[in-house]
Design goal:
The complex is a heterodimer. By secondary structure, chain A is mainly α. Chain A contains 10 helices and no strands. In chain B, strands 6-7-8-3-9-10 form a 6-stranded mixed beta sheet, sandwiched between helices. In chain B, strands 2-1-4-5 form a 4-stranded antiparallel beta sheet. The chains are: A mainly alpha, B alpha/beta.
Chain lengths: 245, 302
């Protein structure tokens, strides 16, 4: 399959997995659309408007993470229940194209919420740097969490496990680490732990772009996030070789 | 000229359970046609099919598809095959049209070509009136036909169908059989798995009978029929002990009934007449592929 055909296959499959679903069944969109705004509302009511910039960054990254880790459930469902992966294995569609289609479809489900949240974030400091940072963070967090999701999904023996694990990974990546709050608030003995998740660094970078600076050097955060993305992509590509042993 | 499909000393041992899925399986499909992998549940049919379609690695031995090795030349194999997986399901909100059209586009066909093929296969499988109906509103048989349509619309040189008529009613089963035969005439070869003897008998150019991961028989329908040295069978419902029946011929148990396989017509008549004397029914008929299958795979009744 030529390069252009591969790209075409990615978009066609992603369209099948997401747009056709959304058009026929709007309910499939509802959770990813409302979840971030529910958290925003909760923080606004319980803490106040001063946390809104932090909460917006947190909600944006949480939505990206949820879209990424949803790949665990959907890819496992396509493999174990629908058996669509079997159909694709026995076809000219490459494993990378299939994996990217799974990831892109999840991004499409999350895109309505992401567009609205990104507009709010951009309003805080409307310049090209903010816009560029939002786009770059979107790409890196989406790619890294989707790749991680696809990698994990290949180990799932059944769909119930896949759903449970995706919820757990979502909590570990988007709720526990300093994504909704500044890293300086993490108690000193736990600080080293807070630096481990890639989402911590995504939040540091995005907050920095809207003027919420932290003690962490942003360049390091970029490098760490990039390293995570490459590592997760390599892991996913390794596991996406279709063939079971 | 390369074989269409060939297995050489193929063995599969599952790492997780140490279970032998296939053991030293060897056979070949020399020319275009329909090859049926026939066997009971758990015989190894799906394992073999998954190895052939490049989804599962063999433990040892080799498989070639259209002359290509499924391990070292997997990419080339994938471009020339398609598959109907066992117990697959369509996406609930997507229609038969969506399934066929978009998978054809993903395989690299142009829009016009995909459209024409989708239309044709929907007509062939009597799915036109359901073309725009969401899969979750379709019956089990229609869903299975949708999945079959996806596989057949590819016009692949070799199509693998894992139990293609599973959950399909008798009338549509026959339609599917004729479509599979038609596919073979026009587009390419078919390898299918089934545990239905009638399906194997109607469709197959070659049959490979698997039992517990081993090949127990292979050949054309006629060659298989010639393998068993019995021309007649007598079904007896009651009134005889197994020992009594053994004196007439080979006794097998089918669905709780005793069946005697014998070669001598006089013995068959004698057994029938004995049954009449005992006022029990006995049905004499020529042996079929079913008898051969049961004889090959049965250990202690089915």
């Amino acid at each position: 399959m030529r390069w252009l055909q591969k790209v075409r296959a990615v978009f066609i499959l992603a369209y099948m997995f997401s747009v056709l679903w959304i058009v026929r069944n709007l309910l499939s969109l509802i959770y990813l659309f409302f979840a971030p705004f529910t958290v925003l509302f909760l923080l606004y009511v319980s803490v106040g408007s001063e946390v809104l910039p932090y909460a917006l960054v947190g909600a944006y990254i949480m939505t990206l993470v949820e879209a990424g880790v949803d790949t665990i459930g959907d890819a496992a469902w396509h493999r174990l229940e629908i058996k669509f992966q079997d159909v694709m294995v026995a076809s000219p569609v490459s494993e990378t194209a299939y994996m990217l289609a799974e990831a892109l479809s999840e991004l499409l489900y999350a895109s309505p919420a992401l567009v609205i949240l990104s507009i709010f974030i951009f309003q805080i400091k409307p310049n090209l740097l903010t816009l560029g940072t939002i786009l770059a963070i979107t790409l890196l967090v989406w790619l890294s969490t989707s790749a991680l999701g696809f990698f994990i999904s290949t180990y799932m023996p059944n769909i119930r496990n896949a759903w449970q694990i995706s919820l757990l990974i979502g909590l570990i990546l988007a709720v526990l680490p300093p994504v909704f709050y500044p890293i300086e608030q993490v108690p000193e003995p736990l600080l080293w732990l807070a630096y481990i998740p890639p989402t911590t660094h995504a939040a540091i970078i995005l907050r920095d772009s809207i003027g919420l600076t932290s003690s962490m050097n942003v360049t390091y955060s970029w490098l760490i996030l990039l390293a995570y993305t490459i590592a997760f992509l390599l892991l996913a590509t390794y596991r996406a070789r279709w063939r079971e042993k | 000229m390369a074989e269409i499909f060939e297995c050489r000393n193929l063995t599969k041992i599952y790492k997780s359970s140490e279970k032998r899925g296939l053991e030293n399986v060897s056979f070949k499909m020399p020319s275009r046609g329909i090859l049926t992998l026939l066997g009971r549940n758990g015989a190894g049919k799906t394992t073999l099919l998954r190895i052939a379609t490049t989804q599962l690695l063999p433990t040892s031995g080799s498989v070639t598809v259209l002359g290509l090795d499924v391990v070292s030349e997997a990419k080339k194999v994938r471009e020339r095959i398609s598959v109907l997986p066992q117990e697959g399901r369509p996406f609930p909100p997507l229609t038969p049209w969506d399934h066929i059209y978009y998978t054809l586009l993903a395989r690299g066909l142009s829009r016009a070509e995909a459209k024409a093929r989708a239309k044709k296969v929907l007509e062939d499988l009597d799915l036109v009136e359901y073309a725009k109906v969401a899969a979750d509103k379709l019956s089990g048989g229609l869903r299975q036909r949708t999945l079959l349509a996806m596989a057949l619309s590819t016009y692949a040189e070799l199509v693998f169908l894992d139990e293609p008529t599973l959950g399909v009613d008798a009338v549509n089963q026959r339609k599917i059989w004729s479509l599979i035969k038609d596919y073979c005439k026009k587009h390419g070869s078919v390898v299918l798995t089934t545990n239905s003897i009638s399906e194997a008998e109607v469709l197959s150019d070659y049959i490979v009978v698997l039992n517990r991961g081993r090949v127990v028989a292979k050949g054309t329908v006629d060659e298989l029929k010639a393998m068993v040295p019995y021309r007649f069978r007598v079904d007896v419902s009651e009134g005889f002990s197994k020992e009594e029946l053994s004196s007439y011929g080979k006794v097998v148990v089918v669905g709780g009934r005793m069946r005697v396989l014998l070669d001598d017509e006089a013995d068959a008549r004698e057994l029938a007449s004995d049954a009449v004397k005992r006022r029990v029914s006995a049905l004499v008929s020529p042996t079929t592929l079913e008898d051969i299958f049961i004889d090959l795979v049965q250990e202690g009744g089915v």
